[in-house]
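Worked example

This section walks through a single chain of length 529. The input is the sequence exactly as stored; nothing has been trimmed or padded.
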Amino acid sequence: MAGLHRTRLLALALGTALASLAAAPTFAQTKTVISGGFDVGPGGFQGNFNPMSASAGFTWLSTYYEPLIVYDAKLEKIAPALATSWQVSPDKLTYTFKLAADAKWHDGKPFTSADVKFTLGLAKDAKSGSVFGARLNAVKDVETPDAQTAVIKLSAPNAGLMDTLTKLMMLPAHQLSAIPVDALAKHEWWSKTPVGTGPFKWVKYETDQYVELAANADYRGGKPKVDGLVNRYFKTTATAAAALKSGEIQVSYVEADDAKTFAGNNAFRVVEGDSYVVNYLGFNGDAPLWKDERVRKAVLYAIDRNAIIASLFGGAAKPANCGYVADHLVPSGIEPYAYSPDKAKALLKEAGWDQINGAKPITLLSYYTAPQQVNIMAAMQAMLAQVGINIVPKAVDVATYNGTVYAATPDWTQYPVVYAGIQIGPDPSGINVAINEKQIPPAGGNVARVRDAGVTSALDAALAETDDNKLASRYQDVCKAMNKSVPWGTMWVAKRYGVVSTKAKDLVWLPAPAGGPYDQKAQNWSVTP
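Given that input, the structure is written out below as C-alpha cells.
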C-alpha cells in the first residue's frame, strides 16, 4: 500500500508539472535558456525579490544582484565580488574595500562607493524592512574617499561583519534614493524594474509562475554563455523533481527520497552535502512553560534523535548538542542528551510539570511544510507524548510564520515553541542574531525571545574577539553555554540534495545555508540541446 501511495503521489506530481508546461515562458522556447526550480526547498524564497528582506533564495538573487564579497564554491574562503580587494585594520575597526572599476548597473550607470554607502545605510534602517540591521549595529560610518574605495568604520569589533557582507546585495542609489524608505520594503520596483550588477538582468515576473532574466552582454566577467535564465515556481518538491525528469528544468533542490530516484541515472547529477542549518526547538522565553531548565532538558531526553535520523533522514543528518556540529566549534565533555524517557519523566516530576502544564496541548509552530519535516514533527510529538508533554504541530507558510513570531506585541500562546532552522554557514557568528537576548525583535531575529545571560555573554565575547586564533575557542564557549542551559532544544544538521541535468554545463549548485550566496559564476553556465 505504501508503494502504491507513493506511485500515485508521483503520478499526480508529474501531471501537475506537465500541466504547468503551458505556463512556461515563450522566452525559454526560443532562446538558449537554463530553467530551474531555484527557489524550491529550504534554500529558496519564492516570490521575494527584495534582497534586504531575504532570509533565503540567494542562489537565484545573486544571478542579478551581487554583494561586495562572497564565499567561494567550497564555502571555505571569502572571494572577491564587487570588491576586488580589502584590508582590515589590526584593531578590526576599519575595513577598506577596493571596488571593481568596470562594474556597471544594468542601466549602464557605474557602480561606485556611493552605492556601498547608500546600501549599508538602507540596510541599517529598520524602516526599510531590512533583516540586516541587527548585524550591522557596529557600523558607524561608511567613508567614500573616491569612487572605487569604500571604508567601513565600526564602533566596536564585529567578528561577523565579513560574513554579513557576503549576503548584503549592493543596491543602486540612483534608482532607489527617491523612494521613501518606509515605502521601499514592498515597492513594485523589486518585481517590475529591479537593477543589479550581475551577469543576468531582469525581464519579467509572471505572478506565482516564473521569473525571466536575460544575459547581461556588458557584464564585467564576460557575456553569459546562455541567453537567459528562468526560475520556475513549484508548490512541492515532488513536482519539481517530476519537472526535472520530464526535461522542463535543469536544476532544483529535491527531498532525500526523491534524490534516490535519480541515482544511477546518467542524465542527472545528484548533489549531496551538509546544509549548515541546525534545526531546533525554540522554547519561547515569554512562555511560563519553559522557565525551569529541567523541563527544557526533559524535552531533549524524550526525543530519540538517532532514531529519527536513521528512519526519517535515512542516516543523512548529525545530532546537534548545541548550535554547532563542526568539530572545531564543539568542545569535549558536553552533555549528549542521549535518549532516556526515564530521565525525562524524572526531570518533569522534579519540576512539577503536572502543575505547570500537564497534558494541555502546546502549539509547535513551524514553517516546514514538506512531507519529510511534517513526519519528523509527528515523530517528536509521539515521543514527547510518552513522557506527558502534549505538543500539537502547526505548519504554516513562511509569511504567516514571520508575521507571528516578529509581531510587535507577540502572544506567546500562538507559538510557545517553534521548530525552525538557523543558518550557521561557514561563519559561526550567524547564530548571534537568533539567540542573543539583545537581538529580540524588532532589534534582531531572536524570535523565541531567549533571555539567557550565559549565552549572551559568550556570544558578545566571540563577536568582540580581535584575535582570529582565539575565535574557535570563543565559539566553543557559546556551545558550552547553550548545552548547559538548553535555551533551544537543538536537534540535528541534515544533508540536503539537489539534482542537476547533465545537459547543464558548469552549473554550480550547493546545499548552502539560505542558498548561499557563493561564487557560482553564472556567466559560465551553459546548456546543450
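What to look for: The radius of gyration is 23 Å.
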